[in-house]
Design goal:
By secondary structure, the chain is an alpha+beta fold. The chain has 14 helices and nine strands. The strands form two sheets. Strands 1, 2, 3, 7, 8 and 9 form a six-stranded antiparallel beta sheet that branches. α12 crosses α14 and α13 crosses α14. The C terminus is likely disordered.
Length: 354
């Protein structure tokens, strides 16, 4: 794609901020086995070197990086001024509101591991530990000019939480999942993924196996646990919980769970709903109940009550996003336990009514 004008972004220049030389050489050789190793090592000889398993603490260089490809370099670019140009893998950060227009207009845009619109796709977008959105310059280069200017309007300098594992490396300000997936071409471990994505994994498995205790009511509801989920305001926070309730809790099959309770000769009330019935099976559903409580608060509480609850969540967890993640972590554990219990052969088949 060729543009008559290009946009500059404040970004972390990875070439000077972080060059993980052994891994870079490995990736280059896999991509092009015919590369001259002598030339490659010569170019890399002046770069900072790190151990094979640990990145040391160095300073990121935050600069204005252009989207004009002629003014950036890549690991495959061996030109004379290679070391003088910022790397196209430089990472630009944006305030959380950059995703809002895409989130509220899901009929026009799609959020997954990137953002897509009419004829364009911004790949490998992520969110760091302070809620900033980030993407590589080489991907921002592919956006139409109008979208580039929109992202430019939300461009900010990178921030990070102190005293975390990522803050001690050159990757501070960048999501650990992004580093694994985009820079090292490694799918992250489950422990590195946001808990709402783990909810998606569990429910996708339930849907594929057509379990008897839960049914997917609407496939579009999976957008409630899309990887790229913006939660930077009380409104987005409320919408996230409302959609999570629709996807998870409203999918439970009350008759099936009631039948399981009855088969174990546990007393119940015909008016009991799914979470109450699961509780009668001595399964923890506190996280799921909180999801419903917040969903109902939006529908039934006064504006002051809802505001106080939202403010309380931020005071306890530091941000709307952190609170949502904490509740989702509880839900992951509860869904895992529910699956284990309802699939276990712990009911005497002779006692199960026909």
């Amino acid at each position: 794609m060729s543009f008559s004008t290009y946009t500059d972004f404040v970004a972390i220049d990875w070439f000077f901020g972080c060059c993980y030389v052994p891994r870079i050489i490995e990736m280059l050789m896999k991509a092009n086995p015919a590369l001259d190793m002598g030339r490659l090592h010569s170019v890399c000889s002046g770069l900072p070197r790190f151990g094979d398993t640990e990145l040391e603490d160095i300073t990121n260089r935050v600069v204005d990086v252009p989207t004009d490809p002629a003014k950036t370099s890549s690991y495959f670019d061996m030109g004379a001024d290679y070391l003088q140009r910022p790397l196209e893998l430089s990472v630009a950060c944006f305030d959380p509101e950059v995703l809002t227009k895409y989130s509220i207009h899901r009929d026009k845009y799609r959020l997954d591991y990137g953002v897509s619109g009419d004829g364009w796709y911004l790949r490998d977008v992520d969110i760091n530990d302070v809620g900033q959105v980030h993407a590589c310059i080489c991907d921002l280069q592919t956006l139409p000019p109008k979208e580039q200017l929109y992202w430019k309007s939300h461009n900010v300098e990178p921030e990070w939480l102190p005293n975390t594992s990522m803050s001690k490396t050159a990757f501070r300000g960048i999501s650990q999942v992004f580093v694994s997936r985009c820079l090292f071409n490694r799918w992250p471990k489950e422990s590195e993924l946001p808990p709402h994505v783990l909810i998606e994994f569990i429910l996708q498995e339930w849907e594929s196996k057509k379990v008897s205790w839960w049914t997917l009511r609407d496939e579009s509801l999976f957008s409630a646990v899309a990887y790229l989920l913006p939660i930077s305001s009380s409104t987005e926070w409320m919408i996230a919980f409302k959609n999570l309730a629709k996807l998870v809790v409203e999918g439970f099959e009350v008759k099936e769970i009631r039948s399981r309770v009855a088969s174990e000769k546990i007393s119940y009330d015909e008016k009991d709903k799914s979470l109450t019935l699961l509780g009668r099976l001595e399964l923890s559903v506190e996280g799921l109940k909180e999801v419903i409580a917040i969903r109902n608060m939006d529908a039934h509480s006064s504006g002051k009550s809802a505001t106080n609850h939202a403010q309380g969540a931020v005071e306890r967890y530091g941000s709307y996003r952190a609170h949502f993640a904490a509740i989702c972590q509880k839900v992951v554990k509860e869904l895992t336990d529910i699956q284990g219990y309802l699939t276990a052969d712990n009911v005497d088949e002779e006692e199960i009514p026909d």
